[in-house]
Inverse folding.
């Protein structure tokens, strides 16, 4: 079974469903109550009756916000989009309360009537992530909240309801003193504040639209257009109030319908997402057609609406992701301009989609597309794994050639600087002895003694050089004896356990011998260990060796492997073997090699 891990699974729990059902029922009742209040308001009331089709539009707006909130309700840290949409729907219905003839309901409605603007502002600046990004976003939301709550309530402390709302309105129960000058001042302050916030919001939306990627624009277009329209109408309405401009334009009616456009745009986005998920069924048919699997990236790119989409496949043997060409691919780091979505099968990684961050806001579509392409992704992963092995084999061969060339140059240098110079000196000494043998036999004898010492030194150096190429002890007595001899020369205590290992073909013993020596050299250089242990043994048809130490260890995720480790891996890979390194800070290091060694 192919799965795409995500944080939305908790939303399917029965208790969450019960809560969302309760919210939906409450929203239904709130809409019915608001419609009843508006229908009984009568002429001259301050709110909805001046708008054509007031009741149907009021229900459409409120229920659209609540439905959108329920559709987008996902328990993600910092994502308040669902709750804010539901809040906006209820606040919208509460804004109808000033049309009530009851003084209590009228006063409550007058206090909370503009509160739904807070939800709309939050929605427009945070869509589709549901998260505020930066101080400007926060300032817009906080400023709107202050103007629609603090300033509004203080305004009611001094406002005469029949003068500032309507002649037939009930009494304002919050009125403590009738101060028309203070009331007008607060009203103008509120209007100027709204104009400033609207200008800031428009500038912010224009800047973000220009910087947005194509998938991001596609994801936010309906809400962005409706939000910009509503903000422009709010700006025009309140600017006209501040300047005292009167015209034949019914600003209140236009603003009412602009708000309705925002709610419909949000609902449209979520319905489009659900429809896109339902249309994914055709993807299975498309991928089943000849030649489509070869363009899996293009097919998924079209299905997800992201032309920049790339694929990475997990290769277990190398513990990394590779591209379609088999070369390593690094997944984006947190905070990067790209994001990745991991795809798993039976709890194991299969592949990863590297895509535009905008797709994170439609996880249902990503899940559906990945599920539809599951079998094809798994098959493509196997192909990518084969290509990765080929790439690694080519790189390994190149490193082996480089290593062989370096070894030849080192042998040439050692012969030139060591044995060759000694042989030249030996030849000179023999020539001198030949000249002195008749004229000065005693001096000739002394030169011959020195020549014998030079010959012995040259012979020993040639033997050391031969041991570096292929140790005689390894050829004569096998791995255990050769490694024990090297352990006695090591810079730290080394324990060899090779009982029952037996003998193996020469190329296998040489590969294991030099790999163990390289591991011991690395321990001496970097591990800061007090001891090391080497174990040789058989595991079925394989010769297995381990080299462990009690050193400081290292973080495998951040520490690159050196040329020595690559050389070990290449030696073993050339024989069909594998190398595995396990380490962690403060826990030492364990090197494990396996080589097919059937006798």
């Amino acid at each position: 079974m192919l799965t795409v891990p995500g944080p939305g699974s908790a939303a399917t729990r029965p208790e969450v469903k019960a809560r969302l059902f309760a919210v939906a029922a409450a929203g239904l009742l709130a809409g019915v109550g608001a419609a009843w209040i508006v229908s009984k308001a009568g002429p001259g009331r301050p709110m909805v009756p001046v708008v054509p089709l007031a009741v149907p539009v009021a229900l459409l707006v409120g229920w659209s916000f609540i439905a959108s909130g329920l559709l987008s309700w996902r328990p993600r840290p910092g994502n308040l989009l669902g709750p804010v949409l539901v809040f906006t729907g209820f606040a919208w219905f509460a804004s109808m309360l000033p049309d009530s003839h009851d003084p209590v309901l009228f006063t409550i409605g007058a206090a909370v009537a503009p509160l739904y603007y807070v939800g709309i502002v939050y929605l427009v600046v945070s869509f589709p992530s549901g998260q505020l990004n930066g101080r400007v976003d926060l300032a817009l939301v906080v400023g709107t909240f202050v103007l629609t709550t603090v300033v509004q309530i203080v305004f009611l402390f001094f406002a005469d309801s029949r003068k500032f709302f309507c002649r037939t309105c009930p009494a304002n129960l919050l009125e403590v003193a009738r101060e028309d000058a203070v009331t007008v001042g607060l009203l103008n302050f509120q209007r100027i504040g709204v104009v400033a916030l609207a200008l800031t919001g428009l500038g912010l939306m224009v800047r973000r639209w220009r910087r947005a990627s194509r998938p991001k624009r596609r994801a936010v277009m309906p809400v962005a257009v409706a939000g910009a329209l509503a903000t422009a109408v709010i700006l025009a309405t309140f600017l006209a109030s501040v300047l005292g401009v009167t015209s034949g334009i019914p600003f209140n009616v236009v603003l009412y319908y602009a708000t309705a456009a925002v709610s419909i745009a949000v609902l449209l986005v979520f319905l489009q997402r659900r429809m896109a998920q339902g249309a994914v069924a055709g993807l299975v048919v498309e991928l089943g057609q000849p030649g489509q699997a070869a363009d899996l990236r293009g097919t998924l790119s079209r299905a997800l609406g992201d032309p920049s989409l790339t694929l990475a496949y997990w290769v277990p043997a190398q513990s990394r992701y590779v591209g379609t060409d088999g070369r390593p691919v690094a997944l984006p780091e947190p905070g990067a301009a790209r994001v990745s979505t991991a795809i798993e099968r039976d709890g194991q990684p299969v592949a990863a989609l590297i895509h535009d961050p905008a797709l994170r806001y439609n996880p249902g579509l990503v899940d559906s597309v990945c599920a539809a392409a599951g079998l094809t992704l798994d098959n493509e992963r196997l192909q990518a794994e084969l290509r990765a092995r080929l790439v690694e084999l080519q790189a390994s061969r190149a490193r082996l050639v480089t290593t062989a060339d370096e070894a030849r140059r080192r042998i040439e240098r050692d012969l030139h600087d060591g044995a060759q110079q000694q042989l030249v000196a030996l030849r000179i000494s023999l020539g001198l002895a030949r000249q002195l043998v008749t004229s000065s036999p005693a001096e000739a004898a002394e030169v011959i003694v020195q020549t014998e010492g030079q010959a012995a030194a040259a012979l020993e150096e040639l033997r050391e050089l031969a041991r570096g190429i292929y140790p005689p002890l390894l050829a004569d007595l096998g791995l255990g004896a050769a490694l024990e001899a090297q352990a006695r020369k090591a810079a730290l205590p080394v324990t060899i356990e090779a009982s029952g290992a037996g003998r193996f073909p020469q190329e296998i013993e040489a590969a294991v011998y030099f790999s163990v020596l390289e591991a011991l050299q690395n321990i001496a250089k970097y591990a800061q260990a007090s001891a090391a242990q080497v174990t040789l043994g058989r595991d079925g048809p394989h010769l297995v060796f381990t080299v462990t130490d009690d050193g400081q260890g290292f973080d495998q995720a951040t520490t690159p492997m050196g040329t020595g480790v690559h050389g070990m891996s290449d030696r073993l890979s050339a024989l069909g073997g594998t190398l595995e390194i396990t380490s962690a800070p403060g826990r030492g290091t364990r090197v494990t090699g396996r080589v097919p060694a059937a006798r």
About this structure: The first helix runs from residue 14 to 39. Residues 65 and 371 are 30 Å apart (CA to CA). Confidence is low (pLDDT under 50) at residues 1-11, 290-294. The first strand starts at residue 2 and ends at 3.
